[in-house]
Amino acid sequence: MNINVSVRGLIIYLLIIDTFASGWVVLSKGTAMYNADLKAVYYGTVFLTMILLLYYIMQHFQILQLHVLLCVASPFLWFLIRNLHSYTGTHDVMLTEILLVSLVFMADSDLYIDVFKGYKKLIIVMSVVGIICWLIYVLKIGQFYMEYKYYAEFLYNAKYISFKAAYLFKAPGSLRLCGLFNEPGYFGTILGLTLCADGYDMQKKENWILIIAGLLTLSTAFFITSAVYLILRASKNPARIILIFFVAFGLYEYIVNHSFQNETVQFYADKLKIVDGVWLGDNRTTSRMDRLFDDELHSNYRFFGRGTDYVRAIGISGVLSFKTYIVEYGIVGFVVIYGSLTMAALNFIKQNRLSLFYILVFLINIYQRPGVFNTVYFVILFGGLLNLAQKYKSNVNINGNHTVQACVGIINNEQ
What are 275-298's pLDDT values in tens digits? Predict the structure, then answer.
């Protein structure tokens, strides 16, 4: 028994490391900070985690219930579609992460909440260090940093400000916090979803740290995720929603029509403008990609798409959008891929209002980050759902044969 408890604890710590490392900038190919040796160590921890998960499954074998089977099937559907329907005929090696996230469900779904809580603590520490480094740079306190080319410098004319313990994104008129990740938008997305997975509980001091860090990322995803979730959470009170709408509309009109003296503030105010029906802040796609997307929706490929890597094969770069998945896998493929994930999330726990809102804002983020079939997003989605269920005392379906009973349907004390 003690051995099993120790194995479970080791699995949790390894999964926290794997989750963090999957987005760590020094493991991101294409960045100046990339370290191949550390990447090899990362793969070693992933394989060790899978071995321990297999051992744990053998020690606690049980027939999987429907909600677990759905969670296991979803990433494998994505993997099969991605590899069997390939435009270039090449196959990627994402099977490792697919196996990892699936083995966690098969071993004990409750692992996800423990990993989520541990990962959130890392994000809090990362945020504190990042805020301090941001202040040091802005206030010009010493020269504690180095400068590296940004991995997509050709797109942004940008660079990294590296403090080793935190990274900043620096471009003309822009200074954004990256944490220990390769781009500020990724950090902002993680921060926004993590806050939503905790019910955006502003009574917790650590959540204010995440909010401040999120603001410093200047991430559109962070602002939209937070705004949509808070508006949905207020939906119990129609008067509050109307008030929020008018305040938000008035603030938007002021920002887009006001001339700011600060270059950075003006730069981001301009990104909020809508000109000729096009949102200027949408940097997830390009005009060429938009034309391709429209053409494909009216072609014979609209249902099943062109296949994996088609967009890159025809020379379109700088695109990270759901449109790529529709072009490459078609409407049917897109619905199968994300419909299976949605069904898995909806059946994972007995839903309450906040968990439904959380699933919705997670799916909204697919617009700008469709590649969610990996460790970090599964920890945030399923660990976040378990965290909300535990926080607001809903029924939680845990792996296999048992259910943790709590006070059913208690969300009356939402903030």
Answer: 554 555 555 677 788 888 889 999
